[in-house]
Amino acid sequence: MGRIEGKVALITGGGGGIGAATAMLFAEEGARLALVDRDGGAAEAAAGEIREKFPAADVLPMAADLSAEPEARGALEATAAHYGGLDILVNVAGIRVFGALADAEADSWDSILAVNLMATVHCCRAAVPLLRSRGGGSIVNVSSVFGVTGRAGMGQYDVTKAAVVSLSRTLAIEEVGHRIRVNAVCPGPTITPFHIERAEARGVSEEELRRTGAQHTLMKRWAEPREVAHTILFLACNESSFVTGTALVVDGGASAAVGGS
Ligand SMILES: NC(=O)c1ccc[n+]([C@@H]2O[C@H](COP(=O)([O-])OP(=O)(O)OC[C@H]3O[C@@H](n4cnc5c(N)ncnc54)[C@H](O)[C@@H]3O)[C@@H](O)[C@H]2O)c1
């Protein structure tokens, strides 16, 4: 407890599966939080769960489409104004597009790049002066294991996640003199409401999804969102004080054994 006591953290996609789990863990560790999501109701709900568990928690839910640069800047500035600064930025917001690259239309490239890459770019850019003025801080960008390995069928998504790894590395190099650390987290299959609802839409129950999905991992199971949140916390807090510019894979060993085990 208390690893980020009093630190101000903005979490994008804070109403989603990994974002809300990260927010809850950060609240447990004493952070003051801004949860920003395009789905304002989801951000409110995540904030409500935190307040239920920690009535004294500082948590500020916000609705914003972070793919729009002014909205991203506005969310960062509103957080800094509310809490008097910013120490940690966690970029979790993301969308998926399914299909082969040969069929990928320009419009869907535009929309996935706008969220998965450009929302992260906009938030990082708006955060840097705030973190510099604080004497340093930590940025954690959520990529994917498919940002560092390959597969068929989600190429557009995977390209954006590889770009997030590259963005994190270069920003780490450029900002190290300002004591800003920047890292990426690359999750494997993580059982969030997104996957559960998608499975249910094709008649697959959560129980069946848990049993049959993620068999390509060494552990033969999905990650819980909180397991990814713990990695984000590690990179956000001082325990990772010598870690910057890296991409930390959290995939139950899936990428360790090429071709499976
Ligand atoms: N769940 C997994 O298996 C998995 C694996 C690897 C990487 N990831 C990545 O982790 C992140 C979270 O995944 P999740 O499963 O929790 O997904 P999710 O869909 O539950 O959460 C994503 C959140 O981002 C928000 N969002 C989308 N576009 C936005 C925008 N333009 N502005 C602001 N908010 C926006 C959504 O409203 C949603 O609440 C994503 O970036 C995803 O690509 C997830």
List the helices and strands and how they pair.
Elements: E1 8-12, H1 17-28, E2 32-37, H2 40-53, E3 59-63, H3 69-83, E4 88-91, H4 106-133, E5 137-142, H5 155-175, E6 180-187, H6 193-201, H7 206-212, H8 225-236, E7 247-250
Parallel strand pairs: 1-2, 1-4, 2-3, 4-5, 5-6, 6-7
Helix pairs in contact: 1-2, 1-8, 3-4, 4-5
The protein binds nicotinamide-adenine-dinucleotide.
Explain the overall architecture.
There is one protein chain. With 261 residues, the protein is an alpha/beta fold. The chain has one domain: 3-Layer(aba) Sandwich (Rossmann fold). It is built from eight helices and seven strands. It has a seven-stranded parallel beta sheet, with helices on both faces. Helix 2 links the parallel strand 2 and strand 3. Helix 1 packs parallel to helix 2, helix 3 packs parallel to helix 4 and helix 4 packs parallel to helix 5. The site of nicotinamide-adenine-dinucleotide has 29 residues, from helix 1, helix 4 and helix 6. The site of nicotinamide-adenine-dinucleotide (NAD) has 29 residues, from helix 1, helix 4 and helix 6.
**Ligands present:** nicotinamide-adenine-dinucleotide
Structural class comes to alpha/beta
Biggest beta sheet summary: 7 strands, parallel
Order of helices and strands: EHEHEHEHEHEHHHE
Work out the count of structural domains.
1
Mean of residue pLDDT values: 97
How far apart are the first and last residues' alpha carbons, in Å?
37 Å
Radius of gyration: 18 Å
Globally, the shape reads globular
